[in-house]
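Table S2 (text version). Query chain:
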Amino acid sequence: MIFIGLKLGMLLQLAIGPMCLMVFNTSATYGLFIGLTLVLAIAIVDLIYIALSGFGVAAIINKNKVKFAIKLFGSIVLAIFGANTSCINNLVYIALAL
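Corresponding C-alpha cell output:
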C-alpha cells in the first residue's frame, strides 16, 4: 500500500509548479546534466518529506483518542453525504415527475 502512495507522490511531481519552472530555467541555462541533477535532488527531498509525513501521521493516529475522533468525524461526514445525496435524489425524482 505504501508503494502505491509513493508512486502517486512521485507522479504528482510532474505537475507544473515552481520546481518545474526552476528545472526548465536551470536546464536551459546550464544544460541537461545539471537539470537532471536538480530533478534528482528534488525527488530525494520529496521522498524525505513523504517519509517524514508518513511517520508523523502514524505516530499521531496510534493514539486511542485520535482514532475515536477520526472515526466520529468520518461517520458524521458520511452521514452528511448520505443525507445530501438522498435529498438531491428526491428532488430530482420530484422534478422529473412534474
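Notes on Table S2: Helices lie at 2-12, 18-30, 32-61, 64-97. The chain has a mean pLDDT of 82.
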